[in-house]
């Protein structure tokens, strides 16, 4: 590939679970300054794909590069450039929001003073000032998700991977996240987001890839007028083709 | 550098903060200290009033008095109850990451998961040392309150056995951390704790296993003279082996279940 090194590059990535579910040979690229959305129905393989990209699962075949580094060999220098929220956020019930965010910033490699400044900034960015001293166990699901997103983004990562980031957010939270991601993309970050519906974040994507049954089955035009219709047409055509085969 | 120890200080502060903020660790500490003290008081008062069942239960301890009898009761209770307390604490520290789902947030960080696992064990060690000191202090206060300061001043040295036994018991609880990791939750850790407890107690009562590191502390609690110092020095092999297994398992962890 010519041009700048991709933030994420997966080639022929496969990991199969008992029963046949999983990811069956996906190629995927997230370029710097780009939001790449992956959309698919529940169980399509989006979360498995993200886990493979982040080293949470080892592939049966294929490989993943994060900022040009093979994830199997990635060390602290690579991982400090990554922010993610896949499955459960880094938001421990017994800690308050500020303590969680400070821990996340420190674990992502920021020094003590840098972390304090970064946490103050991200608290403002995600409108969390009211909750900084509240135990996370007492926060609503949506606010916990805001804390988790803030924890994933506080250290200004260049590689951002978010699995269904808007699932529990209220409309105000969705707008905050969308603006936060756009700011980071303008600064050169590459963002991969997943969605099982074409939500507000998927709609800011530069590229939308449709995942079905563990495969990338096509792309949607983010500027298209009826994305839902195009999405379901692609998924149903793929289902028909597979059942006919 | 892709070193396993990158960020150990950060991981240690993170784990210490979680442990300090959690009600689980505080509850275990309070219940354990209160439980051991209450059982010791109950047994000693019952024995002093000549209750035959309690005297029979005390076995050779019934022939002792003063500090030796108090410490004898405390170390025997700690050999079993302390193992439960330490095992549950480790099961929670490791298993909760899986039960709460927070383990996924511990991937793709500059601080490796092996480092986080070792930080957890270090925090456990510091906490267990604190529990041993508090238990010793509580038993000292209890002994003086029972008048042993005046009646058995020469026997005060016996109390040194309390922190030693508590520390040895904490060391043999470490397999619970590995079980919680392999089994992805709290219950496998608690199960492992129960297995260690049963094996240690049964073999110790049968006077067998002097050279088995998980049995030696319980045997030493019952009959200090029968366990050579060298056998006790083997006890740290348990946390060394199972601590290394923990670090390895956390390094190789996959979210595939």
Automatic annotation (TrEMBL), chain A:
A Pfam short name: ABC_tran
SMART domains according to UniProt: AAA
Gene3D superfamilies: P-loop containing nucleotide triphosphate hydrolases (3.40.50.300)
UniProt keywords, alphabetically: Antibiotic resistance, ATP-binding, Nucleotide-binding, Transport
PROSITE patterns hit by this protein: ABC_TRANSPORTER_1, ABC_TRANSPORTER_2
One cellular component term from this protein's GO annotations in UniProt: plasma membrane
Domain ABC transporter: 8-238
One Gene Ontology molecular-function label: ATP hydrolysis activity
Keyword Transport applies: yes
GO biological process: response to antibiotic
Location of this chain's protein in the cell: Cell membrane
Topology term for the membrane: Peripheral membrane protein
UniProt-listed PANTHER family: ABC TRANSPORTER ATP-BINDING PROTEIN, ABC TRANSPORTER ATP-BINDING PROTEIN NATA
Family of this protein: Belongs to the ABC transporter superfamily.
Name of this chain's protein: ATP-binding cassette domain-containing protein
TrEMBL record, chain B:
Record-linked Pfam families: ABC2_membrane_4
Keyword hit for Transcription: no
Keyword annotations from UniProtKB, A to Z: Membrane, Transmembrane, Transmembrane helix
Transmembrane segments: 24-47, 67-90, 121-147, 159-179, 186-211, 231-250
Statement: the UniProt record of this protein carries the keyword Translocase: no
Protein name: ABC transporter permease
